[in-house]
Amino acid sequence: MMKKVLLACALTSMLALSASASASEFTINPMVGVSNSKAMGTKAAIGLEAGYSDFVFGYTYSGAEKGQNMNTSFETDVMSGAPDVEMIQVSGSERNDYKAHTLYLGYQFSVGAGQLAVKAGAEFSKLKAVGQYEFNNATPGQEAVDIAELSLNTASSTVIKPMIGVGYYMDNGLNFNLHYTFHSGDRDMKGTGSILDARGTDAGAVSYSIDDKDFSTVMFTVGYRF
Questions:
Q1: CA distances from residue 224 to 16, 21, 59, 82, 86 in whole angstroms, order as listed
Q2: What is the pLDDT of residues 101-149, one digit of tens each?
C-alpha cells in the first residue's frame, strides 16, 4: 500500500509540473544504478526525476532479499544445582526482504559545463523476515533429541529516515547522482509465530527488535535528462 501511495504522489507531482511548464522548462530524467548498506549489501536502484526551471523533484527505489543460515548452541543446567548441563542447539535459516522508496526535492546551480543540484528528502523503508528454526538438546552421554521447531513471519512498520544528495547534470543530458540515507539503530518487528513440539503449540503474535542493524544507504545512479 505504501509503495502505491508513494508512486502515485511522485507521478502526480511530475504530471503537474509537465502540465504547467513549457517544453524548454520541463525535463525528465530516468536513472539507474546501485545502492549499498551494511545490513543488506549491494542492490540495484532505479529512479526518476522531473525538473522545472532550477527545481528538481525525484523518486528512487531499491530493494533486496538476503538469506542466511544459522547454527549455534548454548549450555543450560538440567536442573538447578545439578552437576550436569545440557546443550541446546539451534539451527535454521531466515530470509529478509527489504524495500526502500525515497521522495526528494532539489535545487540546481550552474557550475562549469552543467548544473549542480543539492537534494534533500525522506526514505520510506520496510523490512519483512521469515525464519525457520530447529531446537535440539543433548545431555552428556546421550544423543541429541528434537525439542521443537519455530516458524516466524514478521514485518516492520514503515520507517522514515532523512536523505541528502547531490547530482551533476552535463549540458548533453548525461548526469551522475550520489544520495545518502541516514539509517541506523533498532527496528521493531511484529508478526506471527508457531511452535511445533509435542503439544503443537501456536505461538500467536510475536514482537521483537533487530538491534544495531545499519541500514544507512549510499546510492549512485547515472541518468539521461531529456
A1: 21, 19, 15, 72, 63
A2: 999 999 999 998 899 999 999 999 999 999 998 888 766 556 556 677 8
Candidates 106, 89, 94; CA nearest to 47 is 106
Alpha-carbon distance 108 to 179, whole Å? 15
Cross-strand bridge partners of residue 11: none
Query: Do the Cβ atoms of 88 and 137 come closer than 8 Å?
Result: yes
User: What single string gives the DSSP state of each residue in 180-198?
Assistant: EE---S-EEEEEEEEEEST
Rg (CA), the chain: 24
Q: Which residues pair with 47 in a beta bridge?
A: 31, 60
Task: Give pTM, 2 decimals.
Answer: 0.76
* Contact call for residues 169 and 113 (beta carbons, < 8 A): no
Strands 159-170 and 145-156: unpaired
Query: Using an 8 Å Cβ cutoff, are 45 and 35 in contact?
Result: yes
d(CA 99, CA 58): 17
Cβ atoms within 10 Å, residue 92: 18
Strands (E), the chain: 26-37, 41-52, 55-77, 85-111, 114-138, 145-156, 159-170, 174-181, 187-196, 204-210, 217-224
d(CA 100, CA 123): 6
Residue with cell 531529456: 226
